[in-house]
Amino acid sequence: MFFHNNDKSDLNDIADIPREKESALKDDFKDSKSHQNNQNWLKKNYKKYYFNFYANITLPEKIHLHEFGFRHFEGEKMHRHLSFKNSGELHAFVLKFAPSDIYCSSSLYSRPTEPMDKKEWGGSELIFDIDGKDLHLECALTHNYTKCHDCKSIHPGVLAKCTNCNSSRIYIIDVPCKNCIVSLKKEVTKLVNFLIDDFGIERSGIFIYFSGNNGFHLHVLDSDYYPLLSNERSEMASYLLGKGFKMETLGIKKTQGDKFVPLSKSKQLLEAGWRDRILKKLKINFYSSKNSDSDFSKQIEKLENAMKCDFQQMVLKTVDDLSVKIDPMVTMDIHRIFRLPGSLNSKSGLAKILCNDLKSFDPFNEACFFDKSKVDIVCFSPVSLLFKGKRYGIHEGNNHVPRYVAVYLISKGLANIDLKDIQDG
Amino acid sequence: MSIKLGTNDLAKYPFLNEASLYIKDTHFDLLEFDRSEMSFIINRSFEKIESFIKNNETRHYYKIDKFEIEILTFLASLLILKSASIDIITKKFALFESMRFEKYLIDDLKNSFKDETKRLILLKIFKEVFKIDVYAETKTIELYKIRVPEYIRRSILFHEQEWKLINRTVKDGYVYLDVSEIVRLFRNELSLLIIDKIKNMKSITFPKQVLIKSQKLKNYWDSVNKKTDVDIVNKKSVTPPCIDHLYRVLDTGENLPHSARLLLATFLLFSGKSIEEITEMFKKLPDFNERITRYQLEHLSGKTGSSKKYFVPSCEKIKMENLCHETNVCKGIINPVQLLGKRMKI
What we know:
The structure holds two protein chains of two kinds. Chain A is α+β, with helices and mostly antiparallel strands. Chain A folds into four domains: 222 residues, Alpha-Beta Complex (DNA primase, PRIM domain), CATH 3.90.920; 34 residues, no CATH class; 76 residues, no CATH class; 56 residues, Ribosomal Protein L9, domain 1, CATH 3.40.5. Chain A has 13 helices and 20 strands. In chain A, the strands form seven sheets. A four-stranded antiparallel sheet of chain A has the order 2-1-3-14, with no helix packed on it. In chain A, strands 6-11-10-15 form a four-stranded antiparallel sheet. A three-stranded antiparallel sheet of chain A has the order 8-7-9. In chain A, α7 packs across α9. The longest helix of chain A has 20 residues. The two termini of chain A are 29 Å apart. Chain B is globular. Chain B is built from 16 helices and four strands. Chain B is mainly alpha-helical. The mean pLDDT of chain B is 84. In chain B, a hairpin with a 2-residue loop joins β3 and β4. Chain B has a four-stranded antiparallel sheet. In chain B, α5 runs antiparallel to α6. Chain B starts with 6 loop residues before the first helix and ends with a helix. Chains A and B meet through α6 and α7 of A and α7 and β3 of B.
C-alpha cells in the first residue's frame, strides 16, 4: 500500500463544511439505482479530470507533513489521517480511486497519520471561509431549491416545509447566481483589506480560492501567524466579525446626561483600524468641532436626527456592515482538513481554484473543467444556469446538455444521468 | 549597538541576566549570606516577603537602595522562598514583586519617549525578559506597539472587553498600547519569570540564615493556613466542571480573573456557603484583600448596595468568558447550578 494510515478507528471525522445533517437526509436517495448510476458516471468523469488536469492540483511544500482525507463516491464516510511521501504517491492514489473529495490539512504535523492527540502539531496556515449561506442574500430565496426528505420532491425557492407533503424534513440545494458571486467577492475584498491594513499581511501571502461551490477560501501564508493556537485564531475571527466592539474604542464616552463626548484629551488615539473605518463611514470628523465637547455632541445629535437612529445603534449597525462574514469555526479549527486546491468539489463538480484576478473571476467558466460534449439527463425541476458565458434554460424532464452542465446538475441532486449515457461514459 | 544597563537599572530590575552576571563576576558564594554583615540583607529580604504575604503591601519597597543591596536582597528572597517551598507563598511573592517592577517600568517608559538611551534600555529589557520586540512610535504620538500575534497571545488571558483586539488600535500588523497597557500586558509573564527563577534553582546548599528565615515562614504559614478544604457543594451533588476547575486553580494559589471570581463567588453563595467561608477560601488568591473581598461578597449576596442578589452566570456567559470546562455531566444544562439540583433529586 502506498499511502499511510495508522488510525482506522476515526473514519467519521468531519472535514471542510460539516454536512452530517445534509448527508443524513440525502441518504434516503442513495440506495436507489439512479443514485448509483449517477455516482458511477460522476466517478468516470472525475477520473478523466484528474488524468487531464492533475496540474491544477496545488500541493503544500512539505507534503509529507500534512494530513490528507478523502471521500469516495462509494460512500459518504470521510477517510482521514492519511499521508503521502510525495506528489507522485498522491497522484497515483487519486488516479486509482478518483475520490469525490480530496482534503489536506492546513497544519503541519510530525506524525500526520496518528490520531489527533499524537500528531504533534507544528503550526498552521491561517484559513478564512466565506460561504454564500452566511451572507443571507435575498436572491438565494428565489434561485435555490428545497428538496423534501420524505416525498423526494424538489421545489424552486427556499421553503420551510414541503408544499407537496407538508413535511418539514427538507434540505436546501444552493445554486448561486451572479449576484451571489458578486456579493461573495465583496466580502473577499473586505477581508483582504483587513488582512493587509490591520494585520500587516503581505498581499503576496494571501491566496484566494474559489471553494468549488458557493464560497471562497483564503489561505494566508505568514510565518508570524503560523504558531497561533485555536483560541488565538478565534480572537482574530472575532475582530473580523466585529464582535465585542465598545463605544469607548471610538474615543468617546457617554456623559451622565446621556450625551457622547470625546474621551480625555490625554488619551492618545490613532486614525486606524476599526475606529477609523467607523468614523469614516459615519463621516464623523473627530477634530473638526474645535475640541469642544458640546460641539461634538451637537455633531452626533445632527447625525442621529438625519439617520433617525440612536447613535449607539448606528455605530453597531455600521460595525455589522463593515464586518467580514467569515465562518469563525473554520478559522479557529487548527485540525480541520480543507479541500485541496485544484481538486473537484462533489457538491457541484466545479474545482477549487486559485483566483488570480478576483474582479474578473467567473467560477462558471474558470472553475469548470468538463467538456462540452452533449449528454442526456433527466431534470427534476426547471433550472436556469449561466455556464461558460451561455445561458441554459433546463426544463423538467429530458434534456440534452453539455457535460459540464450535466455534472453540475447531477452533483447538485437536481438531475439524473440518462441510462444510455452510462455506457457512453 | 550594544546597550549597557546602568547600576540604577540593575537595582530596579534585579531579575535581569546582567544582575546575575554581576553576582557571578564578584565570585559571590551563597554561603556568604551567613556572614554577620549580610544579616541586614537577609532581614530585609524576609521583611519584604512578610510584608507581601501578610499585608499585601508593596509600597514600602518602591524606594531603591544601592544596586548591590537590591540585587542581593532579590537573590536572598528567592533562596528563602526556594527553601520554604510553599507554592502559594512563592506565587504571591512573584505577583507582588512583579507589581513593584511594573511601577518602575511605567515610570521609566513614560520618561523614555524623550530619552532615546533609556528607551533602548527598556526595549532591551522587553527583548531579554519577554523575548519580544517592542517598538516605540514617537513621531506624532507617544505609544508603544507590538506585533498582532504577540498581543493576541497575551491579551486572551484577560477577560475584560477592553483587551479584545477589536477594542485596540490595530494597524499594519501592530497593536498600539500606552505605557500602562503595555506593562500590564506583561505582568503575568514577569510573575512567571520570578517563579521560574525560584523553581530552577538546583543543588543548593542553603546558608543557615536562609534556613532559619524559611523555617519562620513555614511556621507562619502553618499557623494561618487553617484547613480550608471547604466542601464546595454538598458531597451528594455534582460539582460543575467549571467550578471544579476554579477550585483547583485557587488551591494552587494561582490568580483568578475578575469574571472567574464572580462565577465562583455567586456559585458558592447559591450553594449556601457563608461569606465567612468564602472569604476563607479566597485567602489563597495571591492578591487577596479581606476588606475588598468581604465588600464584594456582601454586594453579590445583596446585603449591601442595591440589595440586588447576583445570580450565577449562565453557561453561555461562562463560555463567552472562556471559563467553560464542559464534560458529559453538563449535557442539556444552561446554568451550572442545574447540576446541584439534578443530583440532589436522585
